[in-house]
Amino acid sequence: MDILLDETLTKRVETIRSGIVKFQLGLNDDDLAVLLQRVMDAQERFRTSPLATVANDLEKEVVVSSVFGTNTIEGGELSEQETQEALSLSPEQVQNIQQKRAVNIRNAYDYIREVSVQKGWQPSLADVLKIHQLVYDGLEADNENNEPGLLRDNPKGIVTRVGNAEHGGVYKPPQLGKDIRLLLESLLAWQAELAEKGVPALIRAPLVHLYFELIHPFWDGNGRVGRVLEAGILYSDGFRYAPFAQANYYLRNIHEYFALFNRCRKAADKKNEFANAEFVEFFLEGMLETINHLHDRVNRLIHIVLFEANLKRIHDEKQINDRQYAIVNAVLHNGAGMSLSELKKAPWYLALYSKLTDKTKSRDLSKLKELKLILVNKKGELMPGFIEDF
């Protein structure tokens, strides 16, 4: 893509105290072209898969996974299961700060999904401030200067420093509020210019994410806001699930994620013409992994839907009894292999078989295996029959 080498797409911004700041593509076209195409091909395969059949289930899973990922990166303490429980609560049921953090991130994702599908949308300063406001609604930040929806403006004597030795060092982002606002507005304007010139969202999104974190416009919450902003740019371009699930890729590769901000910053300081290539490549590898995972998950969900339909038919035709139907459903929705001892200790199982013999129990299970509704894996665990197809 020759456009990635277009020097006219570089934007230089003269600030009051931070000197001249340059926004550049900083990418090697030869290295990125193949990876970019692989991501686009994966997205096309995913887009044309039978998503409608399982869209609701996939949406719920992605929301939970995304909130868990981006929240955990920034010190959130909820497990993925606890995150799911928190997101199911009504506002009056939210009991603690950790649950409120998760709900706020979900609300920020909801906001960016809503606005980014509007015709001609490009992220604005108002969007960025709104995302931050939603992230911190009703919460106290670690930094006492932080106010929801307000940009950082360091008072005299208070210096913001970002990073640590483990991830490549510490640096000082812009300190003056006027510089921060100017740089953020310029970054968003540059993003819109890139879009108009035909630079793909798969390039624009990570570049905005990278520069946003380097500007560090808020006292707290920059990571969460930056990831939501990145997701919005992708969502606007038709990527419906992967932009949010990408947070889990960042979490799984958290040390590389943090280190890359410093590596790209240092490369730019050394006037490396491909200063941003490492972060964009990292992002694209994550998108490829994420989209392929989602594609596999859709296939699995569809198998579950078909399996459930077949299971109901077999039950309706009285090939299996109510007890056997309950066993298969329990194994299916367990989420992992279920041991025989675990099955036999379940309260519902004990109630169903309280007056029946061991012979009946064995016969019921043998019939399910015979019909391949239940399989036994190498660990001796019970698995739903459709697993055989994976």
CATH 2nd-level architecture of the largest domain: Orthogonal Bundle
Overall helicity = 55-70%
Counting DSSP E segments of at least 2 residues, the number of strands comes to 6
Provide the residue-averaged pLDDT: 95
The number of helical runs is 15
Q: Per the principal axes of the C-alpha atoms, what is the gross shape?
A: elongated
Enumerate the strands of the largest sheet in spatial order, edge to edge or round the barrel.
1-2
How many strands, what sense, and barrel or not for the largest sheet?
Answer: 2 strands, antiparallel
CATH topology assignment of the largest domain = Fic-like fold
**Total discrete domains:** 2
Order of helices and strands: EEHHHHHEEHHHHHHHHHHEE
CATH superfamily of the largest domain: Fido-like domain
Rg over alpha carbons? 25 Å
The CATH class of the largest domain is Mainly Alpha
Give the strand content: 5-15%
Assign the structural class, choosing from mainly alpha, mainly beta, alpha/beta, alpha+beta, or little secondary structure. Answer: mainly alpha
Low-confidence stretches: none
Keywords: ATP-binding, Nucleotide-binding, Nucleotidyltransferase, Transferase
EC number: 2.7.7.-
Protein name: Adenosine monophosphate-protein transferase SoFic
GO molecular function: ATP binding; nucleotidyltransferase activity
Question: What do these coordinates show?
Answer:
The chain is mainly alpha-helical. It has two domains: 2-297, Fic-like fold; 320-389, Winged helix-like DNA-binding domain superfamily/Winged helix DNA-binding domain (Arc Repressor Mutant, subunit A, Orthogonal Bundle). Helices cover 59% and strands 5% of the residues. It contains 15 helices and six strands. The chain has helices at residues 29-47, 55-73, 80-87, 97-116, 125-135, 177-196, 201-215, 222-236, 242-252, 254-269, 277-316, 322-332, 340-345, 347-352, 358-370, and strands spanning 11-14, 20-23, 162-164, 169-171, 374-376, 382-384. The strands form three sheets. A two-stranded antiparallel sheet has the order 1-2. A two-stranded antiparallel ribbon has the order 3-4. Helix 2 packs across helix 3, helix 2 (55-73) runs parallel beside helix 9 (242-252) and helix 10 (254-269) runs antiparallel to helix 11. It is elongated and about 85 Å long. It starts with 10 loop residues before the first strand and ends in a 6-residue tail after the last strand. The mean pLDDT is 95.
